[in-house]
Design goal:
Blueprint (H helix, E strand, L loop, with lengths): L9 E4 L2 E4 L32 E4 L8 H9 L3 E4 L3 H5 L4 E5 L3 H11 L1 H10 L4 E5 H4 L2 E4 L5 E2 L4 E7 L10 E6 L1 E2 L13 E6 L1 E3 L9 E7 L1 E9 L2 E4 L7 H12 L20 E10 L5 E4 L21 H11 L3 E6 L11 H11 L6 E4 L5 E2 L5 E2 L1 H11 L3 E4 L1 H13 L7 H9 L4 E5 L1 E6 L10 E2 L10 E8 L4 E6 H11 L3 E4 L13 H10 L4 E3 L6 H10 L4 E4 L1 H4 L5 H10 L7
Parallel strand pairs: 3-4, 3-5, 5-6, 6-16, 7-9, 17-19, 17-31, 19-20, 20-23, 23-24, 24-29, 29-30, 30-31
Antiparallel strand pairs: 1-2, 7-8, 9-13, 10-12, 11-14, 14-15, 15-16, 17-18, 21-22, 25-27, 26-27, 27-28
Helix pairs in contact: 7-8, 10-12, 12-13, 14-16
Amino acid sequence: MQPPPQSQGAMATGAATLTVPCSMGRRPKRSSQRRGSGSASLSVRASSDANTVTLLDYGAGNVRSVRNAIRHLGFGIRDVRSPEDILAADRLVFPGVGAFGSAMDVLNSTGMADALREYIQRDRPFLGICLGLQLLFDSSEENGPVSGLGVIPGVVRRFDSSKGLIVPHIGWNALEITKDAQLLQGADGHHVYFVHSYHALPSDANRDWISSICNYGDSFISSISMGNIQAVQFHPEKSGDTGLSILKNFLSANSSGVKAPARRKASKLAKRVIACLDVRSNDNGDLVVTKGDQYDVRDHTSSKEVRNLGKPVDLASEYYIDGADEVSFLNITGFRDFPLGDLPMLEVLHCASEKVFVPLTVGGGIRDFTDANGRYYSSLEVASEYFRSGADKISIGSDAVYAAEAFLQTGVKTGKSSLEQISRVYGNQAVVVSIDPRRVYVNSPEDVPFKTVKVSSKGPSGEEYAWYQCTVSGGRDSRPIGAYELAKAVEELGAGEILLNCIDCDGQGCGFDIDLVKMVSDAVTIPVIASSGAGAVEHFSEVFAKTNASAALAAGIFHRKEVPILAVKEHLVDAGVEVRV
């Protein structure tokens, strides 16, 4: 497995280079010298600034979010450029993302693995995040076995989905704190954000390291603490105020860790409420948030203008403050344009990630592309630019449909589709597939070769069954594949989550298509996000009560202030649904 593209300021494309705005920063250079293990010593130089933290960014995924959170808390950042920088650090943050094997390849080839072992052995202040925790263990089964840093006894294993457990573990879950650790002060009773498919289990050999556990099928290690060595499986930079408090506890030696008591004590994985922003240019060239009526975003007036419901960054910030568990940006003209030519959309991600400390998803036009000058960009490069710009997850639409059709026809995984490439490098938890189906009524399941459901409301001619035909290009073109078949195929190809829309329900405010959501969420073992049709708080409790959806997404009712996010959360609490409040 190859590590992801390394450059942050520019994207390598063979002989061609696409320059990205300077606000994105520069990826630190790495030493190519291989270091030996054992007694080899590395020189150390003093690090003086008490308000500066050293960040180990080895070039995978969205580390911008960690940078933004650290800066938000008033600290500067010094990037690791060599193993010596690790040993010189006063405080080291290691936000590991991507695949275990790819990360260890980079750490070993640059000499940073030995430097990390030595730094930790000296009991210097260290905070590992997500993969930064997993790499501390002996080994991982992910594409392995692969040896880790060997600091903590244990093997990192995949969650077992064979008994109905949804994998990846995505969302806001509760911590059971088992040790009095400064890092977790103020976190008791609050949800924190997890997104991972692999986990480390408690054992007699590692129990002295464990500071908290989390339950998801089984109890797994959610944080460790030993002296000055801390690491967490969750993402504090994406865990809202609770996560920022945890980061502050590490960065500020004198931090009190004080946080308001949870209004409702977290006890298990919460259902998520997601705010979606459909983004496109209006007729004046301004980037705006809009909303469609069955995917038509123009006003039904003589002007036929694109509906303008606000500015993307302002609305995203507002929804974060209001309690949205995630924010999703959908570039709804990305299917026809070259997405990396849309620098304003990249800048939206830059700015939003500086203000929004919950997960950000972006979709639209993620595919292989050759621009007007004949320069070829792979889908992996396109996704990488989105990640570096602040996205935590990317959403693939039309390209996933074509990949699924090819897979179902041949039964062969080529490894060349955008879905396969991106999930292989960044992990399937970073890849959402957006499905845009339209209901097609039939008299009998035998009428079509696709999975049908007995519908709750009969069709226009009294039909009792329907199948859901998938579309591409923003709902404009229909394809010979059903939503059920597409969902099963993309799960096999590496999708980590499904965003399930319904063209018939879009903008109608009559509720989610329960028949569709139940059919798909029962068919796959990855999380399903219900989308399209929400018009009242009761629609959210209904979809969670009647289906296995992990999250529910809405757009227009939030943009038009018809239903506040807080009202949705309070209704779900009253309905007995676990949510982050």
